[in-house]
Amino acid sequence: MAGFLAASAFFPGPGSSPAASARSSKNATGELPENLSVRGIVAKPNPPPAALQVKAHAQALPKVNGTKVNLKTVNPDMEETVPHSAPKTFYNQLPDWSMLLAAITTIFLAAEKQWTLLDWKPKKPDMLVDTFGFGRIIQDGLVFRQNFMIRSYEIGADRTASIETLMNHLQETALNHVRTAGLLGDGFGATPEMSKRNLIWVVSKIQLLVEKYPAWGDMVQVDTWVAAAGKNGMRRDWHVRDYNSGQTILRATSVWVMMHKKTRRLSKMPDEVRAEIGPYFNDRSAITEEQGEKSVKTGDKLDGDATKQFIRKGLTPRWGDLDVNQHVNNVKYIGWILESAPISVLEKHELASMTLDYRKECGRDSMLQSLTTVSGECTSTGTKQQASAIKCDHLLQLESGADIVKAHTEWRPKRSHTAFERASDEIH
Amino acid sequence: MLRCHTLPQCRLLAQPGAGAGVLRRRVAPGGTARWGAAPRVSGVEASSPSRAAVEGGERPSMAERLRLGSLLEDGLSYKESFIVRCYEVGINKTATVETIANLLQEVGCNHAQSVGFSTDGFATTTTMRELGLIWVTNRMHIEIYKYPAWGDVVEIETWCQEDGRIGTRRDWILKDLANGEVIGRATSKWVMMNQNTRRLQRVSDEVRDEVFVHCPKAPRLAFPEENNGSLKKIPIRTDPAEHSRLGLVPRRADLDMNQHVNNVTYIGWVLESIPQDIIDSHELQTITLDYRRECQHDDIVDSLTYIEEGEERCTNGSAFAAPHPEEQRQFLHCLRFAGNGHEINRGRTVWRKLAR
């Protein structure tokens, strides 16, 4: 109990008192009596069983949103240190340091125990949750982090993870973020309030900057968060790093709009949905304005080479390309877009950046064609490495004419094969 | 003609040495390494910390330490667990059969790595490499009793053993990690082929000694029951197919480093000509594929489906199979080149009614 009392000193403010949240948690879940005090503090990362998820979440919201004294900082992620995020006022109230430390330790240990014991989906084995599993919410509850090991079948011809693999990871973390935050309605990605109204999220634009491609057996760490995009849209950003070295692998940003599932018409964001997701908005940007512009520069002098066009026809979705709604999964479009990229580009270059504009969806019976226009070599300012950068514009369309996706890609010469180097090291 | 699997870099990465003192470093069969698209990267050995110590001089990466797979105590089989990711799930909200096939390949590769295979992840022994021999897959048979959903964890155990004079087989058992229930089984047959002449080769005693050290001596079969589906012959049908999907083309992602279509893609193609009403009302319980020829980027493929009736219908002797014959549908398949009609592979699928 000492820990509990000290905790209430630690987090002043009526809305954020552990007692209040503990009570609300208890009401919502009716479970876990012995861990209640801690549960009140670590309200979000471990959502209770699915049926009660929404309620608990709704209770938790005001605390997160309304107070500077951020409860989320006391979370089992040992990377965060409590004093780092403590507000100034608390120092004045603190009786003595040793008691504070005792309180913090107790809370951390209890939270950690809570973390490992709580099994929010009955079938999940604990040991996998953190390493390979669903990831967890970190940093003020606004960022979701998950790790992935690159599997053998996710590698492309050059022994590094394909761009589709990386995009698949982005999709997985987005869904897991929504699920972990207790915002999963029926179907992938729609919140409960959205599901009630038959609304779904639809991606409208994605921009990626790839710095380094991971190899088989590498572990990548993906951070993702959301923000508002205009009045009715949502932006989701990702930052992917190599787990070992911390080096950035890729940065991405995406814009999502809401659409009615049946009529397929775009919809404004209802206030109830805004209330559900608003508290999660994090203004941070994965791709800064400058980086974003650099990658999509249109004013570069071209080297005088004529643009070349390539086309690949007869592309059809297979069963494995379809999601639960029998629509083509948006990651698949990338593979099709690259179908018409000439081998000469693919063999010697790697994708450095890509911007995708999703126009229309397609289903099983569509027949598509993929067009690529290569803009020749680009002599934009930059380091020597960009000397032979290539830009392409892509169009994926139905053979009947409607545009499905427009894309712009930039390529740089392949880096020295780190995988290869590692391979030669291993021999000795 | 058989499905080939070879990578030029096999030659570059030398086998660390069948002569190495430690027993576990001896090469063991693991022909699945090539089954699928993935070219091998550097040798990631030592799937368990103890092995890392034993190897000495190998530096296990973070990924290896965190890898959840490991050899079992007797060193004769390998187990690894995988979480099903959202993008691996299909229209039924469960993992697709291609996902399962990919996982089988992954665990096969990891097994090969963990028993100290050549760093390229193949089952090619020193002797084999010297003679230019490779393993190629001949037949693949997968049965799935319960498809895992997004977030489920599947534990796969795999092992391999001799199969007659010219071959090896790799078997798998898939379990739901949460409750230990068997959710699937699979077996595959491999033969040795000279990669230059493309002719089959018997397994010489020399190669046998190298290769089959690490396999169960008593036969251990994923499908021990008599008359099981994995042994059934797949006949050729000459009548017109009831269903077909023509003009399938390989995508870049379907190709391996040698520009051959990978094995998992064929599964997708076989399913392409299944009619929509079966896809909507049934799920795939069993698929058997016999690999005959290889396919490359510019080939165009036709997928044909024939209904299989009569005595050829699989008996439901196994406790695992669907409970009621009327709820099963069975088909024969043929993938062939659109141009000259030559057979690429032939197959059989069995479907059980979805409980909707």
Write the layout of secondary structure elements.
The complex is a heterodimer of chains A (428) and B (356).
Chain A: H1 2-10, H2 18-29, H3 36-41, H4 50-66, H5 82-85, H6 89-93, H7 97-117, H8 126-131, E1 136-138, E2 143-149, H9 163-180, H10 192-196, E3 199-210, E4 219-229, E5 233-242, E6 248-260, E7 266-267, H11 271-277, H12 289-295, E8 308-315, H13 332-339, H14 343-348, E9 349-358, E10 368-378, E11 389-398, E12 403-413, H15 418-427
Antiparallel strand pairs in A: 1-2, 2-4, 3-6, 3-9, 4-5, 5-6, 6-7, 8-10, 9-12, 10-11, 11-12
Chain B: H1 49-55, H2 62-66, E1 70-71, E2 78-83, H3 97-114, H4 126-131, E3 133-144, E4 153-163, E5 167-176, E6 182-194, E7 200-201, H5 205-211, E8 243-248, H6 263-272, H7 276-281, E9 282-291, E10 301-307, E11 328-337, E12 343-353
Antiparallel strand pairs in B: 1-2, 2-4, 3-6, 3-9, 4-5, 5-6, 6-7, 8-10, 9-12, 10-11, 11-12
Helix pairs in contact in B: 3-6
Description of the structure:
The complex is a heterodimer of chains A (428) and B (356). Chain A contains 15 helices and 12 strands. Chain A has 428 residues and is an alpha+beta fold. In chain A, α1 packs across α7 (97-117) and α2 packs antiparallel against α4 (50-66). The longest helix of chain A has 21 residues, at 97-117. The model of chain A is unreliable at 1-91, 115-131, 297-304, 378-387 and 417-428 (pLDDT under 50). By secondary structure, chain B is an alpha+beta fold. Chain B folds into 2 domains: 1-20 and 35-224, Roll (Thiol Ester Dehydrase, Chain A), CATH 3.10.129.10; 225-356, Thiol Ester Dehydrase, Chain A (Roll). Helices cover 17% and strands 28% of the residues of chain B. Chain B has 7 helices and 12 strands. In chain B, a hairpin with a 6-residue loop joins β1 (70-71) and β2. Classes of the chains: A alpha+beta (428), B alpha+beta (356). Chains A and B meet through α9, α13 and α15 of A and α2, α3 and α6 of B.
